[in-house]
């Protein structure tokens, strides 16, 4: 489970997916499968959370990694490249952005 804390020194990645109500659940299933069967087993993975808005037009993914290199290495694997093709087909766009925690309340 993700723990948001200012003392966290790893890499935080927040990815937003824009989708349609007709494909949102299928996209969520694809993301859940990726985490369950592949991503969470990769070196440096710490935790993640998946969120969907009420209109089923956006999915947000919050993930934590030991460091930036671990996240980038996971993205470069052949399996994740194939998974990202399927993910991209289910949304209009997605964008992973790396962040650092600055404050928590």
From TrEMBL:
Pfam families reported for this sequence: ABM
**Family annotation (InterPro entries):** ABM_dom, Dimeric_a/b-barrel
Cross-referenced Gene3D superfamilies, in alphabetical order?
A: 3.30.70.100
ABM domain location: 11-102
The reply to whether Acetylation figures as a keyword in the UniProt entry is: no
Give GO terms: molecular function aspect only.
monooxygenase activity
Taxonomy, superkingdom: Bacteria
Q: What is this protein called?
A: Antibiotic biosynthesis monooxygenase
